[in-house]
Specification:
Elements: E1 22-28, E2 34-40, H1 45-56, E3 71-76, E4 82-85, H2 92-95, E5 101-106, H3 114-124, H4 128-133, H5 137-159, H6 162-169, H7 179-182, E6 188-195, E7 211-218, H8 223-238, E8 248-252, H9 269-276, E9 282-287, H10 304-307, H11 315-322, E10 326-327, E11 334-343, E12 354-363, E13 366-367, E14 372-373, E15 377-378, E16 385-396, E17 405-413, E18 426-427, E19 432-442, E20 453-458, E21 460-461, E22 489-494, E23 503-504, H12 508-525, H13 532-544, H14 553-561, H15 563-569, H16 574-578, H17 586-589, H18 591-595, H19 604-609, H20 618-628, H21 633-646, H22 656-667, H23 669-680, H24 686-702, H25 707-728, H26 733-744, E24 753-755, E25 758-766, E26 772-773, E27 781-787, E28 797-803, H27 808-826, E29 838-842, E30 845-849, E31 854-856, H28 857-864, H29 876-884, H30 888-912, E32 922-925, E33 930-932, E34 944-945, E35 948-949, H31 959-965, H32 977-995, H33 997-1005, H34 1022-1028, H35 1034-1050, H36 1052-1069
């Protein structure tokens, strides 16, 4: 007879006492694993769960489990009934489960509505079940925490007022009043107000016909004051009574945007734009009940807080857990790994190829010690190599940073004859090697635990566009290649330094305690009053130095020793100071945790710099995000492109930067819109598809009311992609146009959608008869929509849809022009820039805003002169402007617009190295504004033919441009006054950009990870350093720019010659 287990005996729990306090518990996990736990009989359920999860992490299938708070305990009680244990502060001895069996089960109601999961999966382009299938603890932990963030923001929004909900869904564009706008602050402006019955009180039986009122108001007035004036006049004219100001708002005609808040009218971006373009602002008076504020779908779903178990974690739990762990700072052993096998190697085994592996330890892009290499070995017939070699690095565990990473590269060694080195070959002292695959991984996992045991890494193919001279690729992702079936695999073992005891990185409190002790000892050795004069010289040198590595070691040590003094006098030098410390010495890198807690908040410019890949320390990146917390919504949108790219430099899924972006996106629909598309446009990139997909899931789940809008936009993109494919097969122009009209006439489901280019614009219905195929190579689609406020706005909505062109570089260039314009305006310089909207939606798919009433220089020259030498003639542009500006004042204004905008684009194209400038990608509006389009080549990547650069001038300043600037005056007696003023505009614009040169460099540096062919390494930033001449004094820099200006003017005939060649070639093709 089989004996009954002791725990099933009736007196089992009676035998447990203080003398015999341990009880054996059998825990049944939902992933199918059974774990035996030995616990104190007074342990609470929360303590048991914590120990259970810690032990389960060492068992298989742990990745199947979510965060522990998603689960509750279930037992069979003494009445032989199932019982769920919600209160986890209860002690196991009070519960006494039969047999000591604890069943861990998911909280009821935790599974979300399947239709929402399907909708989110379709929106992000990846099924949510794919995340589950990865069996990753880090992914599960991130999803749980982000869901919690979404729930918290939802609760705040749900409790908010109607106005709070309106501000979230229709956020007003509020901008700072810069020096340019400030000139209007004491002036009045003409405003037009429309009112119509269908926008008024729903219950009203009174028919309010469409009326229009004109007002003159001060720019300093508020929306409420304007609304009072409108309601008062309307009540008088239409005999309406009992109007309440709180029941009405002013809607911008043609936009899903309202004048909300207590800002001066001049602070609204729409008002600033109208004043800038001398247009009359127009509004529609709308009753609040007519505004379609969408209630969140969340309202029908139980908040996460109400479902999860009531846990009572406290300090004793943490202390109890730490007793079972060892600090990495207590281990003085050298860091070591064992390389086992490399398989599925992409090489020809018949050629007796020799392969080796190089491994390095890095913090950001900085090596922590010398990299190590295996000996080269021959690939066997199975395309495998067995190494079984241990590598011990010259760095102790205690001196490794929290964000240290291991970088691997498998390389091929071949002997080539002189002059036959392949493109990817890297020079070494011993030989030439050809890197074929690489991978990176973190030394500590996302919980701060030192990796130990076996691991298989799936490597990435070494791409041709990796321009680094090094074999290792520390800038690359720490994500393993998801194509596990075909990718090269590397098996390795991380050395274990304890007997089954986890090794963790010390807490922030422990790091700061150690840092304070080190600093006290340093002060005993440093006399702070010495070397101050020398420090002033070093300060200037450090500020303008391109590379801190160029500093002498003694200077760097001196700078670091006086760090407190530096931070007190000039906090903006903090990014440079971080370059002076040794990241392989904890005595130095531990100080960072102290410094960031005593620094004042830095400017946006400096905070963005700290989010570059070079700054890997978590404390530094968290500090940078804290500096951005007070950033306005408009500033956040301006820099969102770089902030999304900065996510790629985060070591782990969860970070302060990701939390910051998700929270701001969930509180402002406009930010959420662009975050959604910036992330989704890169979902096809395997190295970021999981990370970006998880962020998209978090955003969509927390903003479910916006899912229908995104679904419609996605349908719009899919339909136009299909149409583009159809059109590309029609070689005949007329047949292509017929195909466009036929296809769009059946696409009613893409009516009434928010424009992906600008969520503030609602497109009503497609004007099929006005849509067409454009003539360029990729056959872009010209799409025309009717405005949602067509009764009050005459302008239609024009969109260019491109399929086959990578618009990311255009998007970056246009963003930089917007930033330049903002910098100039902050200095009182309005150069009438026209950075139109552009967005990348998918791989080689995107949209561009159409600038109306504008023509290319080529077409203007062709219109005014049919000869091939039209590009050499002075008069066409001025003559064309006269056609559309027939009065003396309007022509004078158009020439002024041309002069200002030409100055702005001359400087912008010079600094950014915008190439391939010809007469078909420079345009002029009828109002005189000049602007550039098509930014396929930047940073000085000028086109060449037969090894000779086609463009040999710093920027475009042709004789016909000068003729307009001079108002058609002859210049035999030297430059006229108008041209001197133009040159002064250029010089002022250049000096402003140079003043903010580090910001421009930082923004481009943050985009290196994008994968743009012309911005793939730090070498590509060299062009910006050369144009901005940051190492020179202001006087030297101005002299440098004047020389470039003279060069552009003197050699303008070369530009005209290029344009003539371009026009002839284009006509021949036609």
């Amino acid at each position: 007879m089989v004996p009954i287990p002791a725990e099933y005996m009736p007196d089992f729990w009676n035998q447990v006492s203080s003398e015999s306090p341990l009880v054996e518990l059998t825990c049944l996990l939902p992933n199918g694993i059974i774990i035996l736990l030995s616990e104190n009989y007074n342990a609470t359920l929360s303590e048991i769960k914590e120990d259970l999860w810690e032990k389960a992490s060492r068992f298989p299938l742990f990745g199947k489990l979510h965060d522990m708070s998603v689960y509750i305990f279930k037992i069979i009680n003494s009445m032989a009934e199932e019982e769920e244990l919600i209160d986890e502060s209860r002690r196991i001895n009070d519960i006494r489960p039969i047999g000591g069996v604890l069943i861990i089960t998911e909280c009821r109601g935790n599974s979300t509505d399947n239709s929402i999961n399907v909708a989110i999966g379709h929106l992000i382009g990846k099924g949510l079940q794919d995340f589950d299938a990865l069996n990753s603890t880090e992914i599960n932990d991130f999803r749980f925490k982000m869901r919690k963030v979404g729930d918290e923001i939802f609760k705040q929004r749900h409790k908010g007022t109607w106005l709070d909900k309106l501000l979230h869904q229709f956020p007003p564009r509020v901008a700072k009043i810069d020096k340019v706008c400030n000139q209007f602050s004491r002036e009045s402006m003409q405003i037009r107000i429309y009112c119509k019955s269908e926008y008024d009180i729903p219950e009203s039986t009174k028919e309010i016909l469409q009326h229009r009122f004109d007002f003159e108001v001060d720019c300093s007035s508020t929306p409420n004051k304007l609304l009072e004036m409108v309601l008062s006049k309307r009540a008088t004219v239409l005999n309406i009574k009992n109007q309440k100001i709180l029941e009405y708002v002013l809607k911008i005609c043609g936009r899903d945007e309202y004048l909300l808040g207590y800002y001066p009218l001049l602070q609204f971006q729409y008002i600033q734009d109208c004043l800038s373009y001398s247009e009359r602002p127009s509004f529609l008076i709308v009753h609040v009940d007519r505004i379609p504020v969408v209630n969140s779908i969340y309202a029908n779903i139980d908040p996460l807080e109400s479902r999860k178990s009531r846990t009572s974690y406290n300090l004793s739990n943490t202390l109890r857990k730490k007793k079972n762990m060892k600090s990495s700072w207590d281990i003085n052993d050298s860091y070591a790994i064992t390389l086992c096998t490399a398989s599925r190697l992409n090489c020809d085994s018949k050629k007796q190829t020799e392969l080796g592996i190089q491994v390095g330890l890095f913090h950001g892009g900085k090596p922590l010690c010398q990299p190590l290499k295996t000996d080269e070995r021959t690939v066997n017939e199975s395309n495998e190599i067995s190494f079984d070699v241990s590598l011990e690095f010259d760095i102790q565990i205690c001196n490794m940073t929290r964000n240290a990473k291991l970088c691997f590269a498998i390389y091929e060694v071949n002997k080539y004859s002189k002059g036959t080195k392949p493109k990817k070959m890297k020079e070494t002292r011993e030989s030439q090697i050809n890197p074929i695959a690489w991978a990176n991984t973190s030394v500590f996992d996302f919980k701060g635990q030192l990796r130990t045991g076996a691991m298989t890494l799936y490597l990435w193919t070494y791409a041709e566009d990796i321009m680094s001279d090094d074999v290792l690729h520390p800038l690359g992702t720490v994500v393993s290649n998801p194509n596990t079936e075909y990718a090269t695999a590397l098996t390795l073992v991380f050395k274990s330094y304890t007997n089954d005891q986890p090794v963790i990185y010390p807490s922030v409190e422990e790091v700061m305690e150690y840092a304070n002790i080190v600093e006290e000892n340093e002060h005993k050795c440093i006399v702070c009053s010495t070397g101050i004069g020398r420090n002033k010289d070093l300060c200037l040198k450090l500020y303008y130095l391109d590379n801190v590595d160029d500093l002498h070691d003694q200077d760097r040590n001196n700078i670091w020793a006086h760090r407190r003094l530096w931070m007190h006098r000039n906090p903006d030098l903090f990014p440079r100071l971080l370059m002076c410390l040794d990241w392989n010495k904890r005595e130095e890198f531990s100080q960072v945790a102290v410094l960031v807690r005593h620094l004042p908040k830095l400017s946006i410019e400096k905070a963005l710099e700290l989010l570059d890949y070079a700054y890997a320390d978590q404390d530094v990146r968290s500090f940078a995000v804290r500096c951005l917390m007070d950033m306005s919504d408009e500033d956040l949108l301006l820099y969102l492109l770089q902030l999304v790219q900065a996510i790629k430099h985060e070591m782990y899924l969860e970070s302060d930067l990701v939390n910051f972006l998700i929270q701001r996106a969930l509180t402002n629909q406009r930010i959420g819109h662009f975050l959604f598309w910036h992330l989704r446009s890169e979902m096809q990139v395997q190295s970021v598809s999981v990370r970006f997909g998880l962020i998209l899931e978090a955003y969509c789940r927390g903003s479910q009311e916006n899912i229908p809008d995104f679904q419609k936009q996605l349908k719009f993109v899919e339909k136009l992609k299909s149409l583009s494919d159809i059109v590309s097969k029609r070689k005949d122009k007329e047949k292509a146009r017929a195909a466009v009209k036929e296809y769009l006439s059946t696409c009613g489901e893409i009516d009434n959608l928010r424009s992906p280019l600008d969520p503030g614009i609602r497109c009503n219905s497609i004007k099929v008869e006005r849509c067409k195929v454009m003539d360029s190579k990729m056959k872009p689609l010209w799409i025309v929509y009717e405005s949602s406020d067509k009764e009050f706005v005459d302008d239609d909505i024009y969109i260019i849809f491109k399929n086959g062109d990578d618009l990311r570089q255009d998007m970056l260039t246009l963003q930089m022009i917007k930033i330049m314009d903002k910098l100039w305006r902050s200095e009182g310089l309005d150069l009438r820039m026209n950075p139109y909207n552009c967005i990348s939606l998918e791989h080689r798919v995107g949209m561009i805003e159409v600038v109306l009433n504008a023509e290319t220089i080529a077409n203007i020259q062709k219109e005014k002169s049919f000869t091939p030498t039209a590009s050499f003639k002075k008069g066409p542009i001025l003559s064309w402007l006269k056609d559309y500006n027939r009065t003396e004042n309007s022509l004078k204004q158009a020439i002024q617009e041309f002069t200002l905008s030409c100055a702005g684009y001359c400087v912008a194209t010079y600094v950014l190295g915008i190439a391939d400038r010809h007469s078909d990608n420079i345009m002029v509006k009828r109002t005189g504004q000049l602007f550039h389009i098509d930014f396929g080549h930047i940073l000085g990547h000028f086109k060449e033919k037969f090894g000779i650069k086609r463009e040999r001038v710093p920027f475009v300043l042709t004789h016909d441009f000068v003729y307009v600037i001079n108002k058609g005056q002859k210049t035999q007696q030297g430059p006229v006054l108008e041209f001197k003023i133009f040159q002064d505009y250029c010089e002022r614009a250049f000096m402003v950009l140079r003043k903010h040169g580090n910001l421009i460099l930082s923004l481009f540096s943050m985009m290196i990870s994008t994968g743009l062919p012309e911005l793939s390494s730090e070498k590509d930033l060299q062009y910006l350093k050369e144009t901005l001449v940051l190492s020179k004094t202001d006087a030297e820099a101005l002299a440098h720019f004047r020389a470039k200006f003279d060069e552009a003017l003197t050699n303008s005939w070369k530009t005209s010659l290029n344009w003539a060649s371009h026009n002839i070639a284009k006509n021949n093709k036609a």
